Every structure is written in structure tokens, then in C-alpha cells.
Amino acid sequence: MGGVALGLLVAVVLALVIYGVFSALEGAPQSIFMIIMQSLACVLTVQMVYWMHKNARNMKSAIEAEMLKSRENYAWWGALVVILVAIVREGSEIVVFLSAQIMALSSDNIGAFSLEVLVGVIASFVTFYLFILTGRVVSWKKFFSVTGFLLLFLGLSLLMRAVEDIVNLLVESDCVELLPAWTCSELWNSSDILSTSGFVGNLAGSFFAYRDQPTLLNVIVFVLFWLIIAFIFQRSNRYEAQTVKTA
Q1: What is the pTM of this model?
Q2: CA atoms in the 13 A half-sphere facing the CB of 233
Q3: For the chain, what is the largest distance between any 2 Cα atoms, rounded to a whole number of angstroms?
Q4: Could you read off the pLDDT of 142-186 as tens digits, one per residue?
Q5: I need a surface site. Which of 20, 150, 164, 222 has the fewest CB within 10 A?
């Protein structure tokens, strides 16, 4: 419990630091800080999925071995560090991921935000409990493959928002001429089918980078993101296959 408490404390402190820095900035610097946080959250999300992809098969046994080793050696601090690092890692990623919501907090919406966070925490515990119950049916590798794919879409959504904020910043700074006109041209309009102003459309936009009126720049970012992801993971698979052959 000590490791969990310390990890959560570090995550809360990080959230307060992010909120403090954002509140101290105004105008363009504030927008730039927001873009940096969104881009960083995207990178952290992809890095986490990549790590899960590489370690999903042996992660459970590795963690159990580390905890058992600490218990046998009566090194309680070793278990504390393992738990602390895990909680800080995931907590930091969540804080960065939620930076946009954290920065927009006020006395009017902090209650609703806290409720949403509480629901998310409860849902995560329920999901993990259900996974433990079905652990013999669903392997860790399959579980992380599905959740990793969803997380990659979240990373793409963050990247898309960062790019759109860059465009908005250029427009506000009268530097829009730096972008070719064709990149901002609207390709289609699917708002009649699924509008981002509605609940479902907004959810799809937040979690799956859906746009009901995408520009060519949106499509370019979408395609490039998945091409880069495919290259990274194919390279990882080839390296893993070569390692197995030489072992």
C-alpha cells in the first residue's frame, strides 16, 4: 500500500505542477504549452503500447519474480520501489493524457470532472477484476493487444488535436500562409451521419480521432501515424524473431 500511496502522491503533485504552469501562462505561450503536453501524451501512449507489446508475454512472471525475490530477501523497500515505479509511470501518463481537462478546471466543472475520474477508476478496477476471473480464457498477450490498439487510437486523437491547435495558433498569429492552402481544404462532410457535436460523435472524436469534416491535413496525419506505428512494430517483431532464432 505504501508504494501505491507514494505513486498516487507523485501523480497528484505532477497534476498540480501542470495546472500551475498552465495558469501562469497566457495567450500564445499557453497554447504552445498545451500543444507540447498533447504531443508528449501521444508519445508516452505509443511508448507504453510498444512496451506492452514487447513484455506482454513475460510481464506477469517478471513482476511476480521481482516481488517474490523482494519477499524472500525481506527487502520490503524493493517491493515498494517496484510498485512505486509502476504507479508513477502509469499515473504520470494519465495526468499528461488528461492535461487538457486539468487545465480547463474551474469551480463550475471540478465536481463533474472528479466524478468522471472516480467512475474511470472504478471501471478500471472492475475491468481488471473481470480479466483476472477470465485469465485462463483470455491471455495477457491478447488482452494487451486489444487494449494497446485502443490506446493507439487515443494517441492518434491527441496528435490530431495537437496538429489542429498548431493550425489555430498559426491563424491567430497571422502566420497561416506558412501552411499550403490545400492542406486545410475540407474533403467531405459526414455530420449528417455522425456529428461531433453529439455525444457519440464527440466520443468518437475524443477516443478514435473521428472528424465529421476532415481536412486533407487530418487525413495526412492519420495515414502517417499508422504508417509510423506499422514500421515501429514490424521492426520490433523482426528483431524479436531474430533473437529467438539466435537463442
Answers
A1: 0.74
A2: 19
A3: 65
A4: 777 888 888 899 889 889 989 999 988 888 887 777 778 778 888
A5: 20
